[in-house]
């Protein structure tokens, strides 16, 4: 099966060949006008092997029969349709207890779930088959059409078109007209992650000593592989204008128009590259080079921080983080309670020295920059002594932290340096002015109105501070471990608008959460790519950038094809942005549509660069092509950002209904204009590329961001921030977490495949097939690992095999009663099961979060309180708030589609699907 899948991928090239109609590999030096030579899909039922680039509608899905217990659907109080009954999902388990054995092909008595056993709408099956398809074959950015699903392990071969790791288009076949786009109800936009982690470094071109960077004189697009070169001139692929090239960039060209330095210059053959730019691009008008990125750590030292040991955990995290700083980076330490404490880190000192500032309304810095900032290597002794002094604080008298004053002081430290990064550790709600916050409590309000209040950033101080930090190129990350709500949304807005992140650990427990805190802080420092960022998005004539979605808000563009220029004080692996496009004319189907995103930034090494990302899409007049080549991960992220940007102006009910209605609209439009004759009355037909979109959107509806039952206000705000700002991989794992049956692991799973040759693709991690998120999938005596991008929960049934416990936790553990519920790290044992599970946990943490390790929370069946969190993630079951189960959602969609089809006349001929 794997060989057939691999062969199918290798043969895939939009119609049998990567070149024109005659097949054969396209000559990379002579580019046709079309990005894809043959986009005609087949519309029969899917047969044969899984094909991640197939351009066909999905096979008709026979709807589940109505459950006698839940026969009808109605509108619940939450605003979205749901069954009338309040009964929860079934919680029964099979009565047969599987006997655990040491996993091996010969001894495993429970066969892994097969792809064929699951319906074609299964998210776990799609992910698993996609992983297998790209195990031995790279993704070719010009020849392959649709990108792999988010979260897939794959290696990219850059063919002059951007990797989907950096840019995902919602549509890979662009409608020629606005009328055609409206007929699909799909968004047309781009999801960007300019500094996505990759196995290979991004190629770099050095223009620091050049007279100018080659750019179009009309639209200011940067030189890229799609521009036509004549040696002395270049023709812009975006606006069509012919511009002269700088004198020191002139080169000879051959008869095909290929420059003699084509292979030596990445800007001529790579889809994504960095340009090192001259001093004309410096922020300083005097041409002074920017500084290396500096860091300020703000440590909460009030009573709650000491009692919960957050201050100790913060020192551990800082020690781990500064060990990975690049050469030349410097750090400063500032403690805060009801006063500010500046630590002198001069290399001449060997013990901690502190200066206290009690003026909170107008804070100042009592130390010089040379004393406040230190090189971690040169000042190692004094840094260790200072952190040790902070750890030894035992009984502080201050109760309230002066967070606002500490942030202002950090800005004063970084402003003379041109900006930098602030990392904040907070243990309780900051109640001192400036920037005082108060916990938002229900106080008898309607649940959904309370959630809306939780998601409303109403503190003017932090909104103004976001503008000030942006102007000074200062970014901030918040790491909150509090036993009470801290009104996180105000802090999250400040972090998001300055390019940072915010993470919260409610009821922080140092034994349980210290590992995650340390790796999260270390990852935020290690993954920083630079600061002083500014993004520009450009597109072909006929299109305009309409809105840019960044930092939990939608910003209107300038109304031109070059769009607006959002500012990112800090940029890194977590940096994302999205935009949508509108039409100002008709696109020419004889030409491709071109898009370019350019991020001007200062690297962590103080070098000014431009990260250029180029995407090429075909243009079509066939509505079927639009649906067939849609990317559900980009569509999902754009719909979430568009819908969530309406908060807090719209109510939660309105947001829920808008989100659900858009899903129905997309499916109904497909049924009306493409699949009118392709399904029986009892079947629901979805576009193949969007076949798991209903389940993903259902997961978004069930996320804590839109839940009326608020477990933790700060967790609700964190969920909202993640869905609104995260990358496609993070959004995918958040709306549909992965769950693995650990008692079914077999030999060969959960390990990296060995490279046969040094030049082979990156090591592939052999993941077991995940199982659907339903309680019906849980077995008596089973063990399941669930990961949603935030928590990693190990759920253990009460009838779990003692041998399984011994292999995973040690020979002295024979029953669940002997397990420590506060256990956060699995013991390192020399058993196959231990190696597999620890390897799986490490892979998930690194693959999705970019961190080295992640804690595992033990959850015993009907014993531990966090079982509520585990069952909350069973997104295919009906939730406690009357949000659909997955079969109920499909029945609802089908009913709405049938109703719309009966109301509207056929439109298929109008858009020429044949």
UniProtKB/TrEMBL annotation:
Which residues belong to any copy of the Zinc finger Sec23/Sec24-type domain?
A: 214-249
**Which Pfam families is this protein grouped with?**
Gelsolin, Sec23_BS, Sec23_helical, Sec23_trunk, zf-Sec23_Sec24
Membrane-spanning parts: none
Q: Which GO terms describe its cellular component?
A: COPII vesicle coat; endoplasmic reticulum exit site; Golgi membrane
Question: What family does this chain come from, according to its entry?
Answer: Belongs to the SEC23/SEC24 family. SEC24 subfamily.
Query: Gelsolin-like domain: from which residue to which, for each copy?
Result: 766-836
Q: Residue spans with biased composition (Gly residues)? A: 14-23
Query: InterPro entries annotated for this entry?
Result: ADF-H/Gelsolin-like_dom_sf, Beta-sandwich_Sec23_24, Gelsolin-like_dom, Gelsolin-like_dom_sf, Sec23/24_helical_dom, Sec23/24_helical_dom_sf, Sec23/24_trunk_dom, SEC23_SEC24_subfamily
Keyword annotations: Golgi apparatus, Protein transport, Transport
Principal place where this protein is found?
Golgi
The signal sequence is none
- Location(s), subcellular: Golgi apparatus membrane
Every copy of the Sec23/Sec24 helical domain together lies at 631-730
Recorded GO molecular functions are: SNARE binding; zinc ion binding
Protein name from the UniProt record? DEKNAAC101120
* GO biological processes: COPII-coated vesicle cargo loading; intracellular protein transport
Q: Where is the Sec23/Sec24 trunk domain?
A: 292-518
The Sec23/Sec24 beta-sandwich domain extends over 530-619
Region ranges (Disordered): 1-28
């Amino acid at each position: 099966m794997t060989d057939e899948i691999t062969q199918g991928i290798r043969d895939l090239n939009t119609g049998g060949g990567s070149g024109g109609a005659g097949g054969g590999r396209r000559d990379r030096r002579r580019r046709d006008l079309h990005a894809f030579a043959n986009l005609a899909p087949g519309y029969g039922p899917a047969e044969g092997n899984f094909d991640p680039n197939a351009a066909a509608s999905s096979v008709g899905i026979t709807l589940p029969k109505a459950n006698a217990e839940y026969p009808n659907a109605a509108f619940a109080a939450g605003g979205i349709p749901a069954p009338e009954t309040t009964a929860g999902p079934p919680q029964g388990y099979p009565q047969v207890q599987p006997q655990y054995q040491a996993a091996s092909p010969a001894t495993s008595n429970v066969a892994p779930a097969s792809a064929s056993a699951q319906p074609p709408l299964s998210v776990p099956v799609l992910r698993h088959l996609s992983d297998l398809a790209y195990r031995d074959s790279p993704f070719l950015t010009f020849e392959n059409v649709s990108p792999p699903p988010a979260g897939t392990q794959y290696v990219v071969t850059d063919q002059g078109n951007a990797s989907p790791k950096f840019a995902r288009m919602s549509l890979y076949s662009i409608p020629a007209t606005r009328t055609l786009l409206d007929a699909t109800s799909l968004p047309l936009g781009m999801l960007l992650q300019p500094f996505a982690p990759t196995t290979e470094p991004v190629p770099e071109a050095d223009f620091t000593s050049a007279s100018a960077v080659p750019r179009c004189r009309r639209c200011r697009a940067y030189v890229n592989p799609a521009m036509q070169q004549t040696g002395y001139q270049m023709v812009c692929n975006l606006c069509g204008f012919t511009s002269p090239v700088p004198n020191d960039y002139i080169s000879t060209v051959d008869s095909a128009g290929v420059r003699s330095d084509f292979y030596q210059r990445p800007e001529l053959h790579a889809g994504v590259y960095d340009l090192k730019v001259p001093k004309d691009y410096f922020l300083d008008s005097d041409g002074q080079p920017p500084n290396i990125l500096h860091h300020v750590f703000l440590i909460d030292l009030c009573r709650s921080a000491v009692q919960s040991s957050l201050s100790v955990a913060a020192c551990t995290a800082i020690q781990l983080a500064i060990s990975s700083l690049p050469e030349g980076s410097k750090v400063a330490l500032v403690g805060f309670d009801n006063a500010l404490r500046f630590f002198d880190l001069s290399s001449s000192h060997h013990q901690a020295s502190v200066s206290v500032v009690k003026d909170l309304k107008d804070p100042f810095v009592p130390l010089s920059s040379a004393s406040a900032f230190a090189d971690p290597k040169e000042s190692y002794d004094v840094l260790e002594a200072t952190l040790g002094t902070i750890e030894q604080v035992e009984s502080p008298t201050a109760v309230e932290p002066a967070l606002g004053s500490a942030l202002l002081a950090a800005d004063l430290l970084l402003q003379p340096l041109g900006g930098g990064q602030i990392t904040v550790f907070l243990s309780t709600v900051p109640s001192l002015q400036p920037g005082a916050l108060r916990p938002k409590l229900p106080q008898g309000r309607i649940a959904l109105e309370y959630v809306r209040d939780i998601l409303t950033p109403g503190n003017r101080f932090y909104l103004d501070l976001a503008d000030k930090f942006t102007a000074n190129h200062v970014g901030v990350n918040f790491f909150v471990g509090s036993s009470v709500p801290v009104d996180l949304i105000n802090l999250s807005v400040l972090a998001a608008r300055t390019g940072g992140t915010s993470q919260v650990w409610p009821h922080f427990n140092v034994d349980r959460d210290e590992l995650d805190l340390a790796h999260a802080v270390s990852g935020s420092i290690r993954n920083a790519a630079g600061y002083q960022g500014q993004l520009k998005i450009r597109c072909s004539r006929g299109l305009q950038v309409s809105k840019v979605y960044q930092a939990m808000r939608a910003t209107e563009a300038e109304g031109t094809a070059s769009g607006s220029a959002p500012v990112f004080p800090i940029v890194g692996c977590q940096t994302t942005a999205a935009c949508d496009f509108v039409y100002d004319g008709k696109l020419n189907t004889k030409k491709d549509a071109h898009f370019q995103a350019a991020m001007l930034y200062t690297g962590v090494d103080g070098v000014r660069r431009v990260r250029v990302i180029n995407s090429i899409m075909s243009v079509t007049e066939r509505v079927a092509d639009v649906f067939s080549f849609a990317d559900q991960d980009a569509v999902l992220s754009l719909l979430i950002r568009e819908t969530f940007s309406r908060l807090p102006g719209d109510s939660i009910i309105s947001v829920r209904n808008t989100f659900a209605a858009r899903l129905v609209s997309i499916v109904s439009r497909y049924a009306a204009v493409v699949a009118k004759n392709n399904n029986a009355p009892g079947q629901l037909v979805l576009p193949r590329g969007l076949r798991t979109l209903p389940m993903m959107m259902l997961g978004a509806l069930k996320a804590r961001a839109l839940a009326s039952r608020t477990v933790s206000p700060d967790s609700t705000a964190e969920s909202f921030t993640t869905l609104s700002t995260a990358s496609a991989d993070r959004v995918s794992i958040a709306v549909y977490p992965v769950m693995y049956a650990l008692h079914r692991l077999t030999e060969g799973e959960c390990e990296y495949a060995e490279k046969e040759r040094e030049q082979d693709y990156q090591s592939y991690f052999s993941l077991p097939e995940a199982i659907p998120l339903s309680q019906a999938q849980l077995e008596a005596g089973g063990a399941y690992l669930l990961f949603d991008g935030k928590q990693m929960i190990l759920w253990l049934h009460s009838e779990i095999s003692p041998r399984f416990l011994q292999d995973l936790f040690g020979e002295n553990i024979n029953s669940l009663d002997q397990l420590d519920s506060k256990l956060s790290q699995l013991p390192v044992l020399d058993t196959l099961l231990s190696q597999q599970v620890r390897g799986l946990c490490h892979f998930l943490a690194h693959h999705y979060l970019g961190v080295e390790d992640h804690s595992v929370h033990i959850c015993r069946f009907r014993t531990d309180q966090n079982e509520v969190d585990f069952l909350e993630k069973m997104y295919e079951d009906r939730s406690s708030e009357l949000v659909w189960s997955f079969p109920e959602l499909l029945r609802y969609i089908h009913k709405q589609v049938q109703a719309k089809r009966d109301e509207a006349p056929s439109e298929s001929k109008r858009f020429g699907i044949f």
